[in-house]
Amino acid sequence: MLDFIQSLVNGIAAGSAYALMGLALTLIYKTSEVVNFAQGEMALVSVFMTYLVLDTYGFPFYLAFPAALVFSFLLGMAMEFFVLRRAKNHTVLSMIIITIGMEMILLGFVSWKFGADPKTMPFPLTPYDAFIVGNIFITKLETLTLFCALFLMAALFSFLRFSRFGLAMKAVQQNPTVARLMGIRVKRVLLFTWGASSLTGCVAGLLISPIVMQPYMMWDPMLKGFSAAVLGGMTSLPGAVTGAYLVGVIENIFGSYVSIEFKSVVAFAIIVLVLCIKPSGLFARHHVKKV
Amino acid sequence: MDRKRDYYEDVALFSSGWEIFWFGALLAGLAVFPFVAKNYYVYMANYMAIHVLVALGLNLLTGYTGQISLGHAGFFAVGAYGTVTLMSAAGAPFLVALPVSAAVAALLGFLLGLPALRLEGPYLSIATLGFGITVTKVIGKLEIFGGRQGMHAPDLVLGPWTLSTDRDLYFLIVTITVLFALAARNIMKTRVGRAFRAVREAEVAAGAMGVNVSQVKTVAFALSAFYTGVGGGLFAFVLRFIEPELFDLMMSILFLAMVVVGGLGSIMGSITGAILISWLNLTLRNILEIPYFGDWLKELSHSFFSITGVSNIQFIVYGLIMVGIMVFEPLGIYGFWLRTKKYWKTWPF
């Protein structure tokens, strides 16, 4: 029983990181129907910039972390402004390819600059500080990640639901042309969305960096976050978070009871099964495009 | 491009005498090449030819049928491991092992095509991506496939010949590639190929006109996986050693890059794209050995970047090419060629 609760806790902890990535992906998909494969690498760049600022120039944390968030916001906006906006045809495939290309460029630069060997992020929390409740370990970092994920979900959700700007984002998603005719600055909305999404990803990256820090650190969270977002229906923020916790919990329970070796692929198997039954994920209504 | 006057002209494999002439010239060039080129270039040609096979297969799926796949490294691995295992563990001859493992890949493609019937866009890409990662993981864990240590390819015996050098392999690989390229071109001119394109353009409309959409999609997946499986089977002999880490997500991405760079939905496009990307893949590995540029790069890495990570420049190059193609010329090299041709046709005016 104790094992079970421990793997449940581990699953929730892993799920929090996936949830942040899933939120970031969902945010962009929600407004522009672009699957942003570069999400992980955008966060990676922000994390390594933070590392550079902290480690090489010796800035304190309370300056470096807000600076990282601002940097990631600008990076996201730059991606939209310089690359996505310039694309000629906005089909799903070409958008996927552009973001994959951006991912490779960013990954290439980061691993050229920093090499492949792992680094240690001078983070105020080590991954070993833990609360022990009963016989269950919960690290402080995991708790922080959980709160960040839930806070960002609540913040983004209420922002989208209750603010005028959120309404504008919804309009842009449903029909960009009509949104433009109604006086919404579509391009500006997209610019902001990319910034916000990049910021969410950066939070995820910073919270992962004490555990693992090397150029490929964001691949697994990014893919799992993507699975989570797909599971949640790609357009629903609470859906993405729920999907992320489902993925995290299932994969940890699978890892401790069935086979640790296939732990990392079980998520994809679940996704395929779920998508067979509900082709648009758990929390979105399936709609067939008209001819 | 050109006007067709009747149905038979539309389905003919070659549309003009010039095309037959150029094709003959290409065949002659390919036949002479291994006798004049250095050994490394023959190896390079083998490497390229295999990637041409894969790009053709992926283009049938992504370019012509419009179904994205980020898991083709999985089919590639199935082809490679299937062929090697059948030959070394079961003692099957090469001519049996290759088609059987390609057929296994095709079967997996068919099975992957079943969920794909209901999926599109991001949903399809995550499903195929998951498939590719899973195949590599499973192969890496099974002892029969050598686990993490990988496997050595056995001697390739083909009837009375033992193909041991790159030059021997060249004839086998290039023959297969040329035949498969012709087959792909021919498929695209038949009823099946037209059905593929109809499904890409408008699924519902295609269904309304009597195209069996689910059949077309699964057939496209299976066919594409078959091409990739054959490529994988040959790849094992070119590399002589295979390990699970080779067939990672990056490989699937590069396959997709070949198709996109060459041109979605064109046979010539897949060929040029595959040649370009696999050439870059081989060249950029030793980027520091390029004269002048390599030295300059070394300086640059020393002062601003790190020298250990310099091989990662290849990712930057691929990324720039992919983004550049999508932003400036969505039809890829083939689109560029079409525009050039059109421009010169009416040149002085």
Walkthrough of the structure:
- Chain A has 291 residues and is mainly alpha-helical.
- Chain A has helices at 2-32, 39-56, 61-82, 92-114, 140-162, 164-174, 176-181, 186-208, 219-231, 237-257, 263-277; strands at 130-133, 136-139.
- A two-stranded antiparallel ribbon of chain A has the order 1-2.
- In chain A, a hairpin with a 2-residue loop joins strand 1 and strand 2.
- Chain B contains 15 helices and 4 strands.
- Chain B has helices at residues 7-11, 17-36, 39-64, 72-88, 94-116, 121-141, 166-188, 191-201, 203-208, 213-239, 249-262, 267-283, 293-303, 313-328, 332-345; strands at 151-152, 156-158, 161-163, 241-242.
- Chain B has a two-stranded antiparallel ribbon with strand order 1-4. In chain B, strands 2-3 form a two-stranded antiparallel sheet.
- In chain B, helix 3 packs parallel to helix 7 and helix 7 (166-188) packs antiparallel against helix 10 (213-239).
- Chain B starts with 6 loop residues before the first helix and ends with a helix.
- The model of chain B has no long low-confidence stretch (mean pLDDT 88).
- The chains are: A mainly alpha (291), B mainly alpha (349).
- At the A-B interface, helix 4, helix 9 and helix 11 of A face helix 6, helix 11 and helix 14 of B.
